[in-house]
């Protein structure tokens, strides 16, 4: 079954890059929705309740990725998988975000291999 | 988050980490190698800036030739360079700067530490005084990227 992925980043270039990586990782078996900040991403989730995975940046105007993650994980969409993709990733920050419910935290620029490593167990129904 | 400071005594270390950050960024974005070159950093008119917020305080300035920005944008977006708008070119340059800065700061923070950057912004170059300046230039394809770390 085709998976719907929400890509959140204030940079159009970054959204496209992340989409391409996800598409390669998922074997093109996916559709995409995009948002340029956390606030628009929450609205996108409301309009697309079948989103399976979110790939989100952290540093964004209006609502950043930290607040967006917090709101998603305390919302009806709490079970959606969230991968954070950010230039401000560090080991300590990764731990902090995972404690808040992020599935994984990847530094920019990501690669299809890194995305595949995370999503493949989910697609096979296993735990990550 | 405990404060850390850039120090003039470590300029060589910063230059090496900047090189590694630029190299890693362009290897992933364009699958190309870079080469250090010597050139004067031009501060004319408006320039793209990224603030380093914590634990260090400072900022990066970047000068990317339009042709290089266009190459990155058209490669990633899959469209002809002629179809790129100025907004997309600025977006492309900003994302490159963001990625480089993140890589650099990640190599700088202490183990267990975090760091924060601002959002890329266009500024008038003359509005950014700094006590210390590190200018670096890299040949990438046909163009030269200029990156300046200042605090």
Task: Annotate the secondary structure layout.
The complex is a heterodimer of chains A (128) and B (151).
Chain A: E1 3-8, H1 12-26, E2 30-35, H2 38-47, E3 51-56, H3 65-72, E4 81-86, H4 91-99, E5 104-107, H5 112-123
Parallel strand pairs in A: 1-2, 1-3, 3-4, 4-5
Helix pairs in contact in A: 1-5, 2-3
Chain B: H1 11-30, E1 35-37, E2 46-54, E3 58-63, H2 66-77, H3 86-108, E4 116-117, E5 121-124, E6 133-140, E7 143-150
Antiparallel strand pairs in B: 1-6, 2-3, 2-4, 2-5, 3-7, 6-7
The largest sheet of chain B, given as strand count, sense and whether it forms a barrel, is: 7 strands, antiparallel
Radius of gyration of chain A, in angstroms, nearest whole number: 13 Å
What string gives the helices and strands of chain B in order? HEEEHHEEEE
Beta fraction of chain B:
25-35%
Walkthrough of the structure:
The complex is a heterodimer of chains A (128) and B (151). Chain A is of the alpha/beta class and 128 residues long. Helix content of chain A is 42%, strand content 22%. Chain A has a five-stranded parallel β-sheet, sandwiched between helices. In chain A, helix 1 crosses helix 5 and helix 2 runs parallel beside helix 3. The model of chain A has no long low-confidence stretch (mean pLDDT 93). In chain B, strands 1, 2, 3, 4, 5, 6 and 7 form a seven-stranded antiparallel β-sheet that branches. The mean pLDDT of chain B is 90. Chain B is globular and about 45 Å long. By secondary structure, chain B is of the alpha+beta class. In chain B, 35% of the residues are buried. Classes of the chains: A alpha/beta (128), B alpha+beta (151). The interface between A and B is medium-sized, with 24 and 30 residues.
